[in-house]
Design brief:
Two copies of one chain form a homodimer. Helices cover 69% and strands 0% of the residues of chain A. The interface between A and B is large, with 43 and 43 residues. Chain B binds a DNA duplex (30 and 30 nucleotides) through helix 3.
Chain lengths: 202, 202
DNA sequence: TCGCCTCACTGACTTGGGTTCAATAAGCCA
DNA sequence: TGGCTTATTGAACCCAAGTCAGTGAGGCGA
């Protein structure tokens, strides 16, 4: 007879729904912000959280739903960080907002990339979450414009502008230090926006 | 004893490596251009191609590698369609190139979206293929510029410009007909590029 | 024409990770 | 204290990716 295993199984602790959910979301941010979606297994998360795999399914019906919940939280963070006092003058608000955006990207770094890009672009729910963020920025810009002509067309171009900001942010993040300054990016982004708006409404 | 199955198993046909590979790539374009990566199973493809699953693994070591090969082909198609006669004047070449790009997007439609976006953004090999396409466009623009100041910084901005074109293309594709014309998109894209170049090198 | 040899091809098996579910027990309330 | 709800568990299930030992189509040399 060998001696019984030394490892004491941690006593099962029962948490309220809110606490456990919050814990799991935090756990998910750490995981999905580090490795891509399918390099993260449910077992990994469960083990790190000190719970059984089954419990995760008690909170989230599916792995994708879990991921969506995590992404949703990250998106909310981003929006919270980049929402600027509406009392400011439009162009100052724009610059402040861009700066906040870039600060967020810098601060989160790879986690931002992983959550925004590393996901499952195919899943409509996931894509919807990211799109909502993008549309929010489009709306923010549009709100300052006094009844532009051809608003539908302008939306398409503004989506493009958001794409420009997103892509330059990522390129900036990945480029060696000193390649381009935050100030230059803000400058160029405002310039592009002005060019688009000036063109559409002369 | 029940009667033997009626279905005649198709005689095993032996193809040359090149033919089979080409067939499988074509097959993959159809599948991955229609549904997202993980909604396509190896069994589906094998069955549609009339071969065994094992054979697919004889040609491609892994599902991802298979997907990469398909994407590579699609990317080559895109580049082939958007490579414009270098003898043309730069700004005419730009407009012609943009038009070709938009035509390609329109022609492929959902397949373009699925292949470019629906993939596994996390996989470095996959991401590399898409990035190579983007960088190619950056290089194409840079080639026309006589020794710009701060070329590294300009690259970041040009990546952003490519992002702008990509995103507006997708938004255009998804928007109801008549929202914005192809001509307007070309116009705005050139405008944005001019603004960026004019700003960097006054 | 025949036998041989290569390698395209098969199908049954293994494996890993997402998902399910019946049983268990922690904490609350009467 | 007993009973009830439900957070929690662990084992089983299932699907799809990946493996592998074997098979036969067809080309080639004699």
């Amino acid at each position: 007879m060998t001696s019984p295993p030394v490892v004491k199984k941690a006593a099962r602790t029962r948490q309220t729904v809110d606490v456990r959910r919050a814990q799991l979301i935090t756990q998910g941010m750490a995981f999905f912000g580090t490795r891509p979606y399918d390099a993260v297994s449910i077992d990994d998360i469960a083990e790190a959280a000190g719970i059984s795999k089954g419990l995760l399914y008690h909170y989230f019906p599916t792995k994708r739903d879990y991921y969506a919940a995590v992404l949703e939280t990250a998106a909310a963070d981003l929006l919270a960080q980049t929402t600027i006092d509406p009392a400011l003058a439009p162009d100052l608000r724009l610059r402040t907002g861009l700066e906040a955006y870039l600060d967020f990207v810098k601060a989160r770094g790879p986690a931002y990339v992983a959550l925004m890009r590393g996901g499952i672009g195919s899943d409509p729910v996931i894509a919807g979450i990211v799109d909502r963020v993008r549309n929010h920025y489009v709306d923010t810009v549009l709100r300052d414009l006094p009844a532009p002509p051809r608003p539908r067309a302008l939306r398409v171009l503004l989506r493009g502008w958001v794409g420009f900001v997103e892509v330059t942010s990522l390129a900036w993040l990945e480029s060696p230090a000193g390649t381009i300054s935050k100030a230059s990016l803000i400058e160029s982004s405002s310039l592009v926006l002005a060019a688009l708006l000036g063109d559409l409404a002369p």
